[in-house]
Design a protein that fits this description.
It is built from nine helices and three strands. By secondary structure, the chain is mainly alpha-helical. α1 packs antiparallel against α2 and α3 packs antiparallel against α6.
Length: 328
């Protein structure tokens, strides 16, 4: 079993046990706030089941119908999880609003508080574990599931504080008010997960990856690499794809061009940057490139070297050679 599959199985098993514990707490107390936490646990179980399937699918090898692999399903999994959280939050807000107007008696709050407190601590440990594994394995699904469990931890903490206040003040309507506040927080969390997953499905560029790539290229640039531009990134589950254009001396033959491009690929994948598949397009230099070109023995130089252009993410993502950026 892979590390990712092991992590999501642990998450699913823990979610089921904690859901049962929270419903026990609800049945012995009748607390709306505890019901809120229990209802969110149902979402945890459903989302965990879907996440398990998406992890399984994302690890399948590429085939004729999926030349980039199956990794995009992880973004879809995070999207579904976000939608489920949103729905759960809205339902919680409506139900708690009703009970705020028509309050009901709650009891045995001490026992319920202890159960919710323990489940919150367990969720925190598992959530942090999932996020750690997700970042290491570059799994959007595991990070989303971990963030969801941490959200559950925060809501449990808020509910524990609220239940203690109810026991101290004996103000019953605080139960529904706390539940409503927690519901809004759950909706906000669902929105963030949904927004992030939609960005992945729409191939939003990973700016952090762009920064890592540019830093490696700038710190290890070779003289023939006159400029790098039109750099784009995409993520397919744990796999990353990088497209860019590299300006090389126009008199290089095909073997020299291939060697320089291969060196860039090797540099990116062996310098601490996340493993990626690169598609590099070679552009020929123009006379206007001479004033920032480092080729000291260039046989066709039209102008003396003046100043190096430091590569930054803002420069390399533009689809134009650097002399067109009017940086000098």
């Amino acid at each position: 079993m892979t590390v990712k599959k092991k992590a999501i199985v642990i998450s699913l098993a823990v979610s089921i046990l904690l859901m049962l514990a929270k419903f026990v707490a609800f049945f012995i107390t009748g607390s709306n706030a505890i019901l809120t936490d229990a209802a969110e646990s149902i979402v945890n179980v459903i989302a965990g089941s879907f996440a398990f399937y998406s992890i399984y699918l994302s690890t399948q090898p590429r085939d004729e119908n999926h030349p980039y692999g199956h990794g995009k399903v992880e973004f879809f999994s995070a999207f579904v999880e976000g939608i489920l959280i949103l729905i759960a939050g809205v339902i919680i807000i409506f139900k708690s609003s009703y009970n705020l107007i028509y309050p009901h008696v709650v009891g045995k709050l001490l026992e319920g508080t202890l159960i919710i407190g323990v489940t919150g601590l367990v969720n925190m440990v598992v959530g942090l574990y999932l996020i750690k594994v997700g970042k290491k394995e570059h799994s959007v699904t595991l990070q989303a599931d971990g963030a969801h469990l941490l959200t559950d931890t925060y809501t449990s903490a808020g509910i524990v504080v609220g239940l203690i206040l109810i026991q101290v003040t004996n103000i019953i309507w605080l139960d529904s008010l706390i539940s409503i506040l927690v519901g809004f927080y759950i909706v906000y969390t669902g929105y963030k997960l949904t927004r992030g997953s939609v960005g992945g499905l729409m191939d939003e560029s990973d700016f952090t990856l762009v920064e890592e790539v540019v830093e490696v290229l700038q710190n290890n640039r070779h003289n023939p690499w006159i400029d790098v531009h039109n750099l784009r990134t995409q993520q397919y589950g744990p796999e990353f794809h990088i497209d860019c254009h590299v300006t090389l001396p126009y008199y290089f033959d095909l073997n020299q061009v291939h060697r320089e491009i291969s060196q860039i690929d090797e540099l990116i994948n062996k310098s601490g940057v996340r493993k990626a598949e690169l598609f590099i397009h070679a552009d020929p230099c123009l006379p206007k490139c001479c004033h920032y070109c480092h080729m000291s023995k260039c046989p066709v130089r039209a102008e003396a070297f003046k100043k190096e252009i430091v590569w930054t993410p803002e420069i390399v993502i533009k689809n134009k050679k650097h002399f067109e950026n009017e940086l000098l």
